[in-house]
Amino acid sequence: MIFNSFLFVLVFLPISVIGYYTINKTNHYDFAKLFLLGMSLWFYAYTNIAFLPVILISILLNYSIVFLFDHIRQSVLKKTVLIAGICINLGALFLFKYLDFFSATLNQYLGTSLLLRNLLLPLGISFFTFQQIAFIVDSYRDSSIRYRILDYALFVSFFPKITQGPIAFHNELIPQFNDVNRKSVNYENVSKGMLAFSFGLAKKMLLADNLGSIVDWGYMNIPSLGTINSLIVILSYTLQIYFDFSGYCDMASGICLMLNIDLIDNFDSPYKAKSIDEFWKRWHITLTRFFRVYVYFPLGGNRKGKVRTYLNMFLIFLLSGLWHGAAFTFILWGILHGIGICLSKLCKGFMQKVPSFLRWLGTFLFVNIAWVYFRAEAVTYANMMLQQLISFQFTPISADMVATVLPSEFNLIQKIVLHYSPLAVYYTGSVLLIIFLLFALIAGTCMKNTRQRIAAFQPNKRTMFILILLFIWSVLSFSEVGTFLYVNF
């Protein structure tokens, strides 16, 4: 099931919120959590029932590992169980996500004939695997971290975050599930939740999906793009992936607020960053945090000299690229950001003397270039796109692009223009496309983010009108629905 669907918005979400508070009103708090667990498993299994055993086995396995910690006295054996647990989690992730990639690579370069299994990738496996690794590591370090199976199962499968994060930690959610003060309706939180959900839905439906049409067309027509068209396509993907992923996280936060749960922020206006270091403090914050706490620090962090520090940072981003997907494009994207973060740290003192706008522009350009490798089907296609960008073939905006990707909201304007002046349709379409792209750019780099809007929330008629407008407009766009990008990672 996806957030941007009639089933979720009109059926699943109202049942979840109303049912949860109705049961809590009877003071049967465990039944309310059991209800949320059942709804979460329904949400997860809706796309493919075969995913359900995967997450249930994963939950039981990791809970059992922590159970074993309490019954093992020898520290060496206890550590062995921890390592085995981490290996099992990573092994499952490797099996579903990376086995075919490595098999195909070995077949191609070493001439082997390994069988490709074509296993279906379970939704959210990259997210819930990392959350559970964090849980067993923390439980190993601190014997006071113990939860009931109901609380733990709800934490792992909690439907707002299960498929695309953020990567929340157990101590951030489970105590909230058990907080009696959060069991009754808080109408201010419900209002803020509706605000976050509506803005997130608008990001996805009105911005990301329309930008995605430009991107899809562009990557299918790379050889004929030229400089201007390739620039439009590259910029469109930079904005698409932000509005798509942050839109999901806004909706997840909004749903949690409706349930009186505070979900950790995953984005903080990343395209306002003035360095790659700052970018990664603002983009996918919870993934960066996981790698910092559970990989970077155990590797020594910055405690073993500068060379080791930069090597550790580079390794983190190499792993981040691989985490996103089993392809050389993702690995290269991770390598680029690994180099970028090292240079950002190395040149920090010098860069402070550079004007603020130039630091922002350099960071934004670097991020745009790196996204090309993230989006392309193969490294060769990414290289072709960048070759088109620097070809200096300043051909006009493609008429095919305008005809194919112009947002449907502008169709009425185009029909009016077509009626009075057929020759002007291309020019008005090009102008409308540029206006849409500029609005998306301004929204992503200058406007308040959803967290800031929630902090400044004032219930009034103007806010209510904006929310209703965005919500209805977004729901009416469900017929052109696209899946979230990060559901693939």
Please characterize this protein's 3D structure.
By secondary structure, the protein is an all-alpha fold. The protein contains 21 helices and no strands. The protein has helices at 6-24, 29-45, 51-69, 75-110, 125-141, 149-157, 170-177, 187-220, 226-258, 276-282, 285-296, 306-324, 328-346, 348-351, 356-375, 379-389, 399-405, 411-420, 425-445, 450-455, 461-476. The radius of gyration is 24 Å and the shape is globular. The chain starts with 5 loop residues before the first helix and ends in a 13-residue tail after the last helix.
Number of separate strands = 0
Helix content: over 70%
Backbone structural class = mainly alpha
How much beta, percentage-wise? under 5%
Number of helices: 21
- Weakly predicted, low-confidence segments: none
Round the mean pLDDT to the nearest integer and report it: 89
Radius of gyration based on Cα positions:
24 Å
* Largest sheet geometry: none
Distance between the termini: 16 Å
Tertiary shape? globular
Helix and strand run: HHHHHHHHHHHHHHHHHHHHH
